[in-house]
Design goal:
Order of helices and strands: EEEEEEEEEE
Largest sheet: 6 strands, mixed
Low-confidence stretches: none
Structural class: mainly beta
Number of strands: 10
Strand order of the largest sheet: 2-10-9-4-5-6
Length: about 120
């Protein structure tokens, strides 16, 4: 099971980015939910959003609610994270991982390299 994150970059406050999480070795909708995490400099990795397999139900952390949208394209085996109205405290490395949304503190497999998001004021 390997997930590859992409789409990060540098933007100014208020900007937008779309992150992609693409799987190889398993089908997203088959078994696991998929969550996005981020790790800011000097901080613990935190879960920010999760999408359910099959029904595509979504959950969000309070810090991103209303600004970020998670979606899944099963045909492309890809989960997206649309990030709008970005703020400097959104800066960090973003990762995706297989999990179960009912408790996405628990993930499966190893972490990928992530994708860097930098928001300047």
């Amino acid at each position: 099971v390997q997930l590859v994150e992409s789409g990060g970059g540098s933007v100014q406050t208020g900007g937008s980015l779309r992150l992609s999480c693409t799987a190889s070795g398993f089908t997203f909708s088959h078994r696991y939910d998929i969550a996005w995490f981020r790790q800011a400099p000097g901080k613990e990795r935190e879960g920010i959003s999760c999408i359910g397999n099959g029904d595509h139900s979504a959950v969000y952390a309070a810090s991103v609610q209303g600004r970020f949208t998670i979606s899944s394209d099963d045909a492309k085996n890809t989960v997206y994270l649309y990030m709008n109205n970005l703020r400097p405290d959104d800066t960090g490395v973003y990762y995706c991982a297989p999990t179960f949304c009912r408790d996405y503190t628990k993930t499966f497999g190893s972490w990928g390299q992530g994708t860097q998001v930098t928001v300047s004021s």
